[in-house]
Write a sequence for this structure.
């Protein structure tokens, strides 16, 4: 609990409407996009400018009060879950687009600006901001940086870290850091890379300068159906081996296809085990050449059906099913739990087979949606939270999937972040000395551990306890050896 | 293979002996002078894993860059950041530690953009692994990218995993006679259009532009842009990448990284522009303060690339808050300050 003295000091720093601590005002902030995790915040601060953010941080630092920074709250790993006794620092009101420089192809925006709003503001100049997480209509750029968000176009256009030029950020003691600059690199250590994906643990972002790209002249998508998931997986590697880097390369399994088709009627073939959507974009001639190659490769890889979208309307319809896959699966089951592991693509058939075996063991169905181009799996575990024990079962199943990803040389999170959700699996992926280095990176910025405590990197005693409970997780064979 | 290195680093950590990490020795000119015993990485050679279909290559740090690139070429792939080889001896580890990228950088990304994971030994002799062999990975802080450009001051890289890309099917290089102002405008305007640009340069009244992609796309862009096709284009870009033209022999050689749209700096004719206007090389002895100020005004920073480093060091000094963070990080990865002392900044 925060002391009344602290709260009254906090109120002095901000206009009255910018501090919330009535229960009904706090409830909307009790969870982020991972709604299974809830905790009502003690107080919510909604600063309107950078100097208010700095003042809040200085106050918290002085009083040793923890701070959880939050943007739009669309995160999927409970990274913005309120912590007891902490200030929930919501940056949504810092929502100004400060400048767009069309010739230099940059946009400078406050952290609360929505991802899609940047592309909309750049559109008159025929420019756009490339990373497009599925939540782009709602998620904010500050959160994108904190999570190093991805999306369906990562293989070609990179993650957030590849598309940010400069940050203004505040340390816990309210000092301003200007990281990066208007050129293409900066002297010293790459702190820009370090802050991307740091999950609000190192500093609070107050301004972001992003790179804008020219809008591709043309984008076209090919849909291919397969009677075997392994063949579809092999086709992905074959497309890349043929020298094509698709703008998007997505895969869905039978359950996901059926659910999406029933929901949005995208016209997907239903008599198949896997569907690939392969989009290429760029210069007109390049797209023509790539579409030709992709079609040839898909046919040679054993696709039972290959369709090319002949119009923009058809392209959007092909995508509609994939984009609606999560809510579509949501119609099949009262609840679903979305996982986010990444694997070397070659391991796909093995991993899908194991997931399907585990699905039988746990008695919970799984629909697989997959950013196939970059190896990022999103298995959706179907469960019913109203049935006693099912949430716990789904979480255990999810944890097993993540451990499997690490076992085959992958990672527990491709784009959703660790947050609180995957904190135990960090113990599987990293050794004690590595986790220790992470804590030391944190200490270099925030020695008092006040920023987002308990998230992203597990305390070592937590790993010890968890290892004791999960013998398989704690005793991966030869964790020190490279895994491919 | 790592044991002798771990042993030496532990011993150095014990008695505070400074060590100079050295691969091929192709970049000894870069950064501030350092002192210590040479810790050679040349024994750490070999490609550990290369899966063209995964677009991922993992190799030990001392592997010559030329060997890595030859292997990629066999599969029609490349390191898209086009790292300089300089005198031909560059290693993979040195390229990543120095974080230098070549002509393709503004259009394809920098060395740091392609690093997926590293294995390293920190200043206490502890082997560590960060990142991995997959393209998307947000578990833990991005320590792998932190190593890129750290000039070995945070640890010895022993193995690096990189994302690789297919080589473009076709490339054409065009030249245009243009003054500096007009060339800077064109480079920036074209970069904002859907054109298959892959490198730009301007020197002595001549703008050179490389196009890469499907043959039909390159031809269409060539028809649109005009200019004269350059015959010996591969050699031109290779010489620029490796600074193997007489322009780059002159010392001091300054590298000013600036906002790409920065108008002419008017700091003399001994200038070569790269990266769509974002890098201005100056082969001229000017006061450090003048150059640092010019770069700062232009939104960037100035580096003494070749020549005798000024008293405040080869790299632009950091603001106090950033400098503190640098020393904090150094302290935690290399508590006794044994690795490449002063190479990056004189105070650590």
């Amino acid at each position: 609990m925060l002391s009344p003295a602290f709260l009254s000091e906090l109120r002095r720093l901000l206009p009255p409407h910018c501090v919330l601590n009535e229960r009904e005002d706090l409830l909307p902030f009790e969870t982020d996009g991972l709604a299974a995790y809830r905790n009502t915040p003690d107080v919510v601060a909604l600063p309107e400018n950078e100097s208010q953010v700095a003042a809040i941080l200085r106050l918290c630092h002085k009083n040793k009060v923890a701070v959880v920074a939050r943007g739009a709250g669309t995160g999927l790993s409970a990274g913005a879950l309120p912590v007891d006794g902490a200030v929930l620092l919501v940056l949504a009101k810092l929502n100004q687009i400060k400048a767009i420089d069309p010739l230099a192809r940059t946009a400078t925006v406050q952290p609360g600006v929505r991802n899609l709003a940047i592309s909309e503001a750049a559109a008159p100049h025929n420019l756009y901001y490339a990373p497009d997480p599925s939540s782009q209509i709602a998620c904010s750029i500050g959160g994108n940086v904190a999570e190093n968000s991805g999306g369906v176009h990562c293989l070609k256009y990179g993650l957030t870290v590849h598309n940010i030029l400069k940050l203004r950020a505040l340390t816990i003691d309210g000092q301003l850091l200007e990281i990066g600059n208007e050129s293409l690199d900066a002297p010293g250590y790459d702190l820009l890379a370090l802050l991307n994906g740091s999950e609000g643990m190192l500093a609070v972002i107050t301004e972001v300068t992003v790179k804008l790209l020219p809008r591709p002249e043309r984008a076209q998508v090919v849909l291919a159906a397969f009677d075997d998931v392994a063949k579809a997986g092999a086709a992905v590697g074959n497309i890349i081996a043929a020298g094509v880097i698709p703008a998007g390369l997505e895969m869905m399994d039978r359950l996901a296809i059926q659910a999406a088709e029933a929901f949005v009627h995208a016209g997907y073939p239903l008599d198949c085990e896997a569907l690939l959507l392969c989009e290429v974009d760029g210069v007109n001639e390049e797209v023509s050449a790539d579409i030709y190659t992709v079609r040839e490769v898909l046919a040679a890889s054993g696709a039972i059906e290959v369709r090319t979208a002949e119009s923009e309307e058809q392209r959007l319809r092909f995508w509609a099913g994939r984009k609606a896959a999560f809510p579509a699966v949501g119609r099949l089951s009262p609840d679903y739990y979305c996982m986010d592991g990444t694997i070397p693509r070659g391991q796909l058939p093995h991993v899908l087979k194991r997931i399907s075996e585990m699905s039988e063991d746990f008695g919970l169905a799984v629909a697989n949606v997959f950013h196939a181009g970059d190896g990022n799996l999103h298995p959706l575990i179907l469960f019913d939270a109203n049935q006693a024990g099912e949430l716990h079962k789904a979480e255990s199943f999810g944890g097993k999937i993540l451990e499997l990803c690490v076992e085959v040389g992958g990672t527990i999170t491709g784009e959703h972040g660790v947050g609180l959700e995957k904190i135990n699996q960090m113990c599987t992926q990293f050794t004690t000395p590595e986790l220790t280095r992470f804590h030391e990176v944190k200490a270099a910025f925030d020695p008092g551990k006040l920023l987002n405590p308990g998230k992203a990197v597990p305390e070592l005693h937590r790993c010890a306890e968890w290892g004791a409970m999960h013998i398989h997780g704690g005793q991966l064979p030869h964790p020190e050896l490279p895994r491919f | 293979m790592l044991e002798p290195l771990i042993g030496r680093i532990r011993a150095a950590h014990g008695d505070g002996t400074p060590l100079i990490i050295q691969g091929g020795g192709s970049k000894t000119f870069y950064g501030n002078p350092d002192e210590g015993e040479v810790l050679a990485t040349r024994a750490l050679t070999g490609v550990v894993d290369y899966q063209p279909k995964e677009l991922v290559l993992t190799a030990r740090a001392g592997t010559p860059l030329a060997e890595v690139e030859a292997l990629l070429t066999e599969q029609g792939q490349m390191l898209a950041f086009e790292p300089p080889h300089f005198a031909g001896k560059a290693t993979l580890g040195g390229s990543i530690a120095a974080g230098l990228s070549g002509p393709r950088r503004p259009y394809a990304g920098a060395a740091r953009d392609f690093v997926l994971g590293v294995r390293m030994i920190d200043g206490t002799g502890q082997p560590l692994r960060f990142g991995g062999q997959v393209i998307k990975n947000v578990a833990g802080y991005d320590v792998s990218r932190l190593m890129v450009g750290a000039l070995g001051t945070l640890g010895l890289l022993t193995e690096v995993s990189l994302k690789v890309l297919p080589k473009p099917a076709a490339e054409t290089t065009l030249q245009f006679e243009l003054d500096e102002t007009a060339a800077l405008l064109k480079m920036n305007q074209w970069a904002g259009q859907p054109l298959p640009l892959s490198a730009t340069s301007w020197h002595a009244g001549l703008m050179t532009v490389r196009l890469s992609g499907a043959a039909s796309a390159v031809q269409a862009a060539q028809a649109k842009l005009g200019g004269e096709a350059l015959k010996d284009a591969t050699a031109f870009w290779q010489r620029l990448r490796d600074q193997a033209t007489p322009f780059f022999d002159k010392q001091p050689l300054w590298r000013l990284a600036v906002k790409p749209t920065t108008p002419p700096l008017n700091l003399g004719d001994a200038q070569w522009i790269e990266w769509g206007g974002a890098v201005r090389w100056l082969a001229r002895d000017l006061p450090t303060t003048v150059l640092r100020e010019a770069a700062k005004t232009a939104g960037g920073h100035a580096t003494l690339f070749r020549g005798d480093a000024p008293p405040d060091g080869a790299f632009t000094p950091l603001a106090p808050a950033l400098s503190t963070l640098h020393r904090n990080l150094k302290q935690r990865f290399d508590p006794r300050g044994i690795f490449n002392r002063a190479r990056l900044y004189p105070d650590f």
